[in-house]
Amino acid sequence: MWRNLDGRKKEAVVQVVYSVGGCFLFALGVNLIITPLGLYNGGFMGVSQLLRTLIVSGLHIPVPAGVDLAGIFYFLINVPLLYMGLRIMGKGFAVKTLITVGIQSLCLTLVPVPASPVIEDYLTACIIGGIVAGTGTGLILRGRSSSGGQDIIGLCCSKKYPNVSVGKINILMNVCVYAICLFMFNIEIVVYSLIYTTVLAMAIDRVHIQNINTSVMIFTKKTGISKAIMEQTGRGVTNWDGEGAYTNKTSYILFVMISKYEVNQIKQIVHSIDPHAFMIFTEGCSVDGNFEKRL
């Protein structure tokens, strides 16, 4: 059955697996490792956890054992944000994000929170929890979806205002959440929560490859590759005429700048026209000029 699917359908299936698996991993990291120690996420997930603490510990409202209200609050907070995403980013983004947020909220609600910490050492829990939850979030982003919250605000703002980035919005939200934690809890909780959030961010960057710029040089003896790349990816291509030093035969040199997420697509396009083409990929390039940052 898998062999009968075309490239686009296979990619869609892989994206779904990334998103669903990422939601489950994030819930495992937060509920099993971080929540039992009383630590908090940044952003709107942290706001949801603070609301849960207020309901359960402050107002003493009974909640079924093992159920975490943070997942429910997180979904409710995302409803107006999804409407904003629909207006600015479009229907496709809003629908995919709604499904992802729904799955993540369900996982956060149903994955049980242990009565006693699985890992009792705070520093160890921050590192392992950050890696697990960060890997989950990175997989969601790698599946070309969003886990909602401040990511929606960041993407919408970065589309309308060039100087605003998703990272800047994340930092602002984290400062607000941990400032509230500083007034509600002791400084130890805040410090370890910051360590956890830092590890989580590093894990996200390791898994999420969408924003890693990659330059590609293609050496081929066949024509038509430039046109195929421009038509199928929308990226610009620069061409040179070259000559092999050993064979003295004419060859074509192509240069294109892409994100790392598009590497496999470029390989498929080139190999479909010239299976013997030679390609060089250079990651982490700094770009200044008219290069589209695809969110």
Question: What this model shows, in words?
Answer:
By secondary structure, the protein is of the alpha+beta class. Helices cover 60% and strands 10% of the residues. The chain has helices spanning 7-34, 43-58, 70-89, 91-110, 122-142, 150-160, 166-184, 187-207, 225-233, 263-273; strands spanning 213-220, 238-243, 250-259, 278-283. It has a four-stranded antiparallel β-sheet with strand order 2-3-1-4, covered by helices on one side. Strand 2 (238-243) and strand 3 form a beta hairpin. The protein starts with 6 loop residues before the first helix and ends in a 12-residue tail after the last strand.
Structural class: alpha+beta
Counting DSSP H or I runs of 4 or more residues, the number of helices is: 10
* Order of helical and strand elements: HHHHHHHHEHEEHE
**Would you report the number of β strands?**
4
Helix content: 55-70%
Write out the strand line-up for the largest beta sheet, numbering strands in chain order: 2-3-1-4
Cα shape: elongated
Separation, N- and C-terminal Cα atoms: 31 Å
Low-confidence stretches: none
User: Main sheet, how many strands, which sense, barrel?
Assistant: 4 strands, antiparallel
* Average of per-residue pLDDT values: 82
β-strand percent reads 5-15%
- Gyration radius over CA: 23 Å
